[in-house]
Specification:
This protein has 182 residues and is an alpha/beta fold. The chain is built from seven helices and five strands. It has a single domain, classed as 3-Layer(aba) Sandwich (Rossmann fold), CATH 3.40.50.620. The termini are far apart.
Amino acid sequence: MKVRDVAFFIGRFQPVHNGHVYALKYILERHKQIIIGIGSALESHTLRNPFTAGERLEMLRLTMDFLGIDCRDYYIIAIPDTDVHITWVSIVEMLTPKFNVVYSNDPLTRRLFKEAGYEVRAIPLYERNIYSGEEFRRRVISGGNWKELVPHFIAEYLTENGLIERLRELARTDKPYKHVDY
């Protein structure tokens, strides 16, 4: 059975920013279908990963709607991390439909998929010094102009759902939220 021409693209999407939109367009110009992996899916409520997998999924769905991509042409799947890197590709394969090419600029991700026999392609970076989750989070915390880094509908989503305030609160406490049993 031949695998369809399906691309796999993974990111943390903390949040979806204009660089991600550029990458999605780039991949979709080359492939009919895409599987978008939400990396570090089990992490949230920290400065590095402030948003939940569900919140990131919603941001990606809004992005795909904005781009006019038919829902039959993409999957969005939460992918957990593992401390045993050699098993991570197997976990991805177990959670996703089949794909034949991987897009990533992350050195570890590229190495793991190459070792598993996948074709791995880089994505041209779009103004990486500006468009990154790290820069977004820095600007939110410092009171800078973060809205120019994300599509308008993502800015609205983040604001309307209290996610900007969550990030600022995380920065003030400098500790992740912890569950307390009473």
